[in-house]
Amino acid sequence: MLGRISGAFGASPPVERPSTWFTWHSDLVRGNVRVLDLACGTGRHALAAAELGASVVAVDSDAAKLKAGRKAADQRNVSVEWVQADLERYPLPVGEFDVVMVFNYLVRQRMPEILRAIKPGGFLLAETFLESQRDHGWGPKSDDHLLRPGELALLVRPLEIVQSREALDFHGGRPMSVASVVAQRVAE
Q1: In b/e form, how buried is each residue of 149-186, taking b as 16+ CB within 10 angstroms?
Q2: Residue 39 carries which DSSP code?
Q3: First-to-last C-alpha distance (Å) of the chain
Q4: 95 Cβ contact list (under 8 Å, min separation 6)
Q5: Are 8 and 76 in contact (CB under 8 A)?
Q6: 102 near 126, Cβ under 8 Å?
């Protein structure tokens, strides 16, 4: 299957390839950096970061997806700390991560806590759906889970935006209307 990484046949769902936004900015997760992947799903970004040498903590509420991620990590011989937790209540440590990744997940009220988890000098690497995603017939439908145009730049304040976009991208052959950002916590 294009766009997915699958191992032996089994009950675990396959792990998708990382997004192009992650791939373009993978230099942020190379080497000895500590990475937090929130709403990791099956771990497509967590696994890719671990393969690049990062120490990764991956958090999601879905036990089946985490199980698939663990299986993929074992097959790839990489280490990821998998945490099953309610993302709306999971306590985020302050200033412990060089990179925090958030892909296809949006809980506006937690954004200040997410940003505080980044070390001074560290980065947020994020991408999620825009309201125009509804036009593509798949993905979230609720305004609670869709960004308005220009909103992501406001949500990442006070971080300094290094690069951002609002674009139509394709993942696994499906169109995705997304807002993406790399933002840095300025060293204090």
Answers
A1: eebbbebbeebeeeebebeeeebeeebbbbbbbbbbbe
A2: T
A3: 46
A4: 116, 117, 118, 119, 120
A5: no
A6: yes
The answer to whether the peptide bond before residue 91 is cis (omega within 30 degrees of 0) is no
Tens of each residue's pLDDT in the chain, 188 residues: 233 333 333 444 456 889 999 999 999 999 899 999 999 999 999 999 999 999 999 999 999 999 999 999 999 999 999 999 999 999 999 999 999 999 999 999 999 999 999 999 999 999 999 998 888 888 888 888 889 999 999 999 999 999 999 988 887 788 888 999 999 999 76
pTM, two decimals, is 0.89
**What is the C-alpha to C-alpha distance for residues 159 and 50, in angstroms, rounded to an integer?**
25
Rounded to the nearest 10 degrees, what angle do helices 44-51 and 63-76 cross at?
20
Domains of the chain: 4-184 (3.40.50.150)
Question: What number of other Cβ atoms are within 10 A of residue 98's Cβ?
Answer: 20
Residue 2 exposed, middle or buried by CB count within 10 Å (0-12, 13-18, 19+): exposed
Strand boundaries in 4-49, DSSP class E:
4-5, 15-16, 34-38
